[in-house]
Amino acid sequence: MDAVIQASVFLGITALIALITWLHCRRAPRSSEGTREYFLAGSGLSWVFIAGSITLTNISTDTLIGWNGNQMLLVVWWELAGIAGLVLLGKIFIPVYYAHQCTTVTELLERRYGSKHLRATVASLFLIGNLFIFLPAMLYTSSLFLKSMLGLAPTYFGIDSLLWLATFSAVVGAAYAIFGGLRAVAISDTYSGVLVFGLAFVLVFLALGAVGWDLSDLPPERLSMIGDEQSKLPWTTLLTGMIFSQIYYFSTNQTITQRALAAPSVRVAQRGAYAAAVVRLLLVPPIVVIPGLCAYKLYGQLGDATYGHIVGQLLPHWLQGAFAAAMVAAVMTSFNSVLNSSAALYVCDLHQRYINPTPDIARLSVGLQIAFALMAIALVPLFRGTESIIQLIQQLLGLFSMPILSAFITGLLFRNVDGRAVIATIFFGAGLYGFFTFGWSPLHFLHLMCITVWACVGFALLVNRLVFGRRASFVLGTPESRREVRAMLGS
Questions:
Q1: How far, CA to CA in Å, does 135 sit from each of 29, 126, 141, 234, 435?
Q2: How far is CA 90 from CA 238, 249, 283, 340, in A?
Q3: CA 261/CA 102 separation, integer angstroms
Q4: Mind listing the pLDDT tens digit for each residue in 141-189?
Q5: Does a structural domain hold residue 443?
Q6: What are the phi and psi torsion angles at 159 (to 5°)?
Q7: Domain containing 181: what range?
Q8: How many other β-carbons are positioned within 10 Å of the β-carbon of residue 15?
Q9: Is 0.90 surpassed by the pTM of this model?
Q10: In-domain check, residue 460
């Protein structure tokens, strides 16, 4: 009987979110331009939906499961540091993107360097990260959570139960991105966010009640906000690679910035980014660390199974169906966001630039997103056995995030840099970070990110001068730069 109640609540809530999203999308005005309508919601998103979509795109099962799986307070710095990334997105990057009328963030690189090949290179790297890291990791963490919470058998009909769960999440999540474009994605994100945060805070209070609202007897390293050099997050990394990681993720990553690019004006986009920063400051920290700390006191060290285990132990059975719906909603919002942004990158940066400038946007995007979803499902088993899924994602991200970020930094700070020098730099940076991380790694990977990003900027300038014979000019603070800033803010 309990299972029937859980399934009924789960399916009812999932269907309700879909219905609300459909009703809202049906009333929305449409744009006649295919790419802007499908990938930027016809430039019609309000700041509320921008903030909601940015938040839920970031806060997915990999976040809730991964950070709580560490079972320590220290990891909350990852979420707090994101505030800086969102503020920089609103203050610096949004005006730049709008001034250049960008549909994708990589379009800015083409405008700055005059190179469609650089744009295509960076878009390809984004796609590789989305397809081989983010999409399968989202499906894996959500499936692991549901399997742990519901106590499912290892296999059904000879197939791993993780794959059954991953397939369900992928199919439902892809439906939003395929049939409704970014508008449906952003709206479903926001309504799902109310459910996700509401139930996540219910769990926080239940977990604290289970430990008598007292965590003081936990080991000191579990409650420390200052990590030493042997910890997972040394305090010195907050001054080096942490800030660059957040700038990359919130200011130059297509999946996040695409929401901000879908506003009717710069001001509306900025309000959305700042509202997302407020949510991150006030609401996110408790839900990503408190359940994990309480679980450590109650059950000991559980790793990535922590979140699902404490939900299964503390939530009433009738509420577990609602919580399962919330977690599936969380993964669907992130999954459909990455699907939509991946299609945008391929269509705008590759297909239209090299194959067909006027394709049937909707038809092409549907085929792409179906293929991407199937690939993600197939890759889910590869993430089994990771000690910490969230740490693995952050570490792998550095292979291309810092080289890509260096391309944006170089383009914003310097003029007269050849795009070919930056393309060479991206591959140099990936090799350098790969050597540091998987070969000789004397430092924490966040320190290596900082070293990598500035080594890439220097390498680009060196190649630009020695190979292509062009002298770069530093423009930050020059009259030209100030005029450009005034023009962007005026837009």
A1: 30, 12, 10, 29, 25
A2: 21, 13, 20, 22
A3: 7
A4: 778 777 766 667 777 777 778 888 888 878 877 777 676 677 777 888 7
A5: no
A6: -115, 135
A7: 2-390
A8: 11
A9: no
A10: no
